[in-house]
Structure formats: structure tokens, C-alpha cells
Amino acid sequence: MTSKRLLLNTILGASVFCGAAGCFSHDDDDDAGYSEVAEDPATFAADFKPTPYGVAACDTHDGKLKGSRELRLYKAGGYESGVFTRGMANYYTRHDLSFFTRFAATKIDMPFALQTDEKVLEAALRKQFPKVDFDSPTFSGTQAQLDEITAAAASLSFGPVLNFIAAHGHQDPSITNVLLVPQVTSSSILKDDRAHVAGLSISPELVRTMRNANDSTANTWRLIGFPDSFNAMVVIDAPFTTTIPDKKIIDLTMAHEFGHSAGLVHVVDTTNLMTPVTDVKAASCAASLSNEQLATMATTLRVGPPAQGQALTVAPPSDVQRKLREPSTQERWLTLQTRLAGKNGGANAFVRELLGHE
Predict the structure, then answer these.
(1) CA dihedral defined by 185, 190, 196, 197, rounded to 10 degrees?
(2) pLDDT band for position 244 (50/70/90)?
């Protein structure tokens, strides 16, 4: 294994929703990808059966998320989905949250979830904004115009996710979609070669949090074409994750991404499940969630005992590492140019900033 760290991201009747990347449509069908007849959840029970860790801190039960959550599985490859669903169950059984599905995994054509090829993004932006001189060292337009260009770049990056939401994101809200894909970003290994994007999660709660954040990315999130409601989704780099020899890392990856899907943001505490970077050597099944985080998940998922605690507020907690200074229009223009040129981390860095990694 060449990567030393895992990046766990946060970082969406006929309906049509539009953003800077264009319009995405959805037909009246509940889910065009599910033409099969639903089966008894017991058919798939083995894929959701947790295995004890043999560690007291990880095998206790506190009932704080007591309940169940339906998953719908999608695979862009021949992956054994039980490895991932059992990983999620292994972690959350300590809070008495269980999972089930009523359908076999649906095959999808999704080679990656985030478009981070700078040449593709630049070509699309030049076509969408033909009057903008992307080669100029200065930007002559307004702040609002630059906002539109930046949001277009973000929407293009999230294009595969937005297209999936248009096709499969309008099911019963009690369902979380889980996608197993060949890689999360189209250029999967980060420029510094020290970390790998193992997962990505998007949910209405998380999008609202990002839109209300006190930082320079909030306005971009407001302009990305995510609908107000859609099924929470967890995306996992299946080939990479299954190569990790320590299987509890799969559990932590799945649990972390599911936490995002239930509205949790990153925290600095490295002993917390929601730390943005997992050190593979130091990872422990005892990575925990605070009472406030569990209350947030209970509220979002509608599980657990009533009034068990105070949920986190909409804005990310103060220990989330964010850039709070608003850069000037010129600074933003030069940053966008640099990223499109593949410098300073390129489009991967742009996506990482949106997802709270920078």
C-alpha cells in the first residue's frame, strides 16, 4: 500500500433542477435503476451481520442510535458489497443502529464520482463562458460573475454526483444510497501522493451546513445545483479500500462516510470518527462520536431514544479547520487559474477545499 493516509470526504412527477453546470432531469419513476421486485430483507441479512471486535470499548451497546436504516446499493464494478455493508454494521452496532436492504445491488456506469481532470474542466468552462479570457492574469468582471464561474467549476466537478441524484436520488427519504465505484476522483491519487480519497458523502443536511458555513466556500455551495431534498449518498472507492490489510479501516471508512451522510462535519480531534484524515497505522475501532454528534445523527435519521441530547447547530463547530478570511476577487481568479492549470494540487485541491480538507 503506497498511500499513508486516507482522506475521508464530506467533502445530491418529473422534476428538473438547474445549476451552473446545466439542468438535470428526473422522471416520475420512484427509481429507474430498480426494476426488480423487492425481496425480504432477510435475503441479504448476512451482508449486514456485525462481527464483534473483541475490544470492550468497541463491543458495548448504548442504544443512542437504536433503530434501522435502509440502504440501496449501486456498483460500478464486480465488487463484493457485503465487505462494505458489514463494515458499516460492525461500527454502528455499538449504538444499536442496524442496516438492511430489499434489493440486490444495481449496476451503474460511474467510473468516478468527482471530475477533477483540469483539461476537461477548463474546456467546459471556456465553452460555457466564451467571453471570459481565462488566460488573462486579471479578472475584469464583477464578484458575482466570478462567483458564477467558480460555481460552474464546482458543479462540473460534482457532475457525476448530480447526475446520479437526478436518476436515483428521489426515493423515500428513509433510504441512504451506497455507491461502490472504481475511484472517487477522476485523478484519484492526490498530487502530494501522501493520501488517497477513499470516500465521499453528500446529503441535504451536509449541503445546508456547507451553505451556512462562515467561510469563503459557502457561496459556492449555495450556487452548486444540488436540489433541496434528495437521498443521502455514500460513495466508496471500492478497489482501493479493499486492498487495505487492516479490515477495521474499512469499518472506519464506511462509518465515517455514513456519519457525513447523516449531517456530521469534520472535527480536528484525531480520536473522533469524523477526523478528516485517518492514519492507517494508528487507526482504532475505538474512534468515537460525541454525544452531540450522536444526537445530530439521531435527529437526521429519526432513530434513538427521544430527547437524548442537543444536536449540533447548522454551522460547523469551531474546531473544523476552515479558511475564514474572504479572499479578494483577484486572489480568487488567480487561484482558479492555478487550479485549472494543474498547479498547487490542481482540481483535486479545489474539491478538497470545498469539502473542508484545506
Answers:
(1) -30
(2) confident
Does the global pTM surpass 0.90?
Answer: no
Higher-pLDDT residue of 218 and 236 is 236
Distance, CA of 352 to CA of 354 (rounded, Å): 5
Measure the CA–CA gap between 295 and 268, rounded to whole angstroms: 19
- What digits encode the pLDDT tens for the residues 30-83? 454 454 678 999 999 999 999 999 999 999 999 999 999 999 999 999 999 999
List, in sequence order, every beta strand (DSSP E) within 103-213. 106-107, 175-181, 195-202
Say if CB 161 and CB 355 are below 8 A apart.
no
> Which of 352, 36, 34, 329 minimizes the C-alpha distance to 184?
352
Backbone angles phi, psi at 296, to 5 degrees: -60, -45
- CATH number, domain at 186? 3.40.390.10
Residue 220, domain extent: 5-22+49-354
Q: How many CB atoms lie within 10 A of CB 14?
A: 8
Would you state the pLDDT for residue 314?
41
Show the CA angle centred on residue 30, arms to residues 28 and 302, nearest 5°: 130
Q: Is 36 left (phi over 0), alpha (psi -120 to 50) or beta?
A: beta
Q: Residue 6: enclosing H or E segment and its boundaries? A: strand 5-8
- Domains held by the chain: number: 1
The residue assigned the cell 464520482 is 113
What secondary structure does DSSP assign to 188-207, as a single string? Answer: -B-TTSSEEEEEEEE-HHHH
Q: Are 266 and 317 in contact (CB under 8 A)?
A: no
Beta carbons within 8 Å of 13's beta carbon, 6+ residues apart:
28
Is residue 32 classed exposed, middle or buried when 0-12, 13-18 and 19+ CB atoms within 10 A define those classes?
A: middle
The mean pLDDT value of the chain amounts to 83
Does residue 28 belong to any structural domain of this protein?
Answer: no
Query: Residue 7, SS3?
Result: strand
Pairing outcome for strands 175-181 and 277-279: unpaired
**DSSP symbols for 252-300:** HHHHHHHHHHTT----S-TTBTT-SEEETTT--TT-B--HHHHHHHHHH
Segment 251-273, tens digit of pLDDT: 999 999 999 999 999 898 989 99
